[in-house]
Design brief:
The chain has a domain of 86 residues: Rossmann fold (3-Layer(aba) Sandwich), CATH 3.40.50. By secondary structure, it is of the alpha/beta class. Strand 1, helix 2 and strand 2 form a beta-alpha-beta unit. It is globular, with a radius of gyration of 13 Å.
């Protein structure tokens, strides 16, 4: 049993990864206010996200498609190699038909357009409990 599985009824641990600082900080600030969520880190760079995932052991990674060092699809694939139990939610300004399949192929549980607001993110997070993250 890993450290994540030992925690019962603890807040979901979130890592926020987005190349746009304002988006990253706004999302982290809002999510941190939620009682059942804990933002454990944020970054704009996929390489840092890989390191932070190993170090911080998040339950969920919320990541934009446009990072400073690679695209979110490629980053999701790399993050799944580092921690296959961590759920990944991808965010995009505008999705195309093939993007949903690319997100699934990369190991993401969802691809959400940012124009939809915070509600779809909160809905997905509420469906994930700290002892039932996808892949466990």
């Amino acid at each position: 049993m890993n450290a994540r599985q030992n925690r019962e009824k603890q807040p979901l641990r979130l890592l926020i990864v987005d190349g746009v600082a304002h988006t990253r900080h706004s999302l982290a600030s809002f999510l941190q206010l939620q009682e059942n969520l804990e933002v454990v880190g944020e970054t704009a760079v996929a390489a840092d996200a890989l390191h932070l995932t190993q170090q911080l052991n998040p339950d969920v990674i919320i990541m934009g498609l446009n990072l400073l060092d690679m695209d979110g699809f490629s980053a999701a694939q790399e993050l799944r190699k580092v921690d296959p139990t961590c759920a990944i939610i991808l965010l995009t300004i505008r999705s195309q038909a093939q993007d949903v399949q690319k997100a699934k192929d990369a190991g993401a549980i969802a691809l959400i357009e940012t124009s939809a607001g915070i509600d779809p993110i909160l809905f997905i997070l509420s469906s994930i409990s700290s002892d039932d993250v996808e892949g466990k």
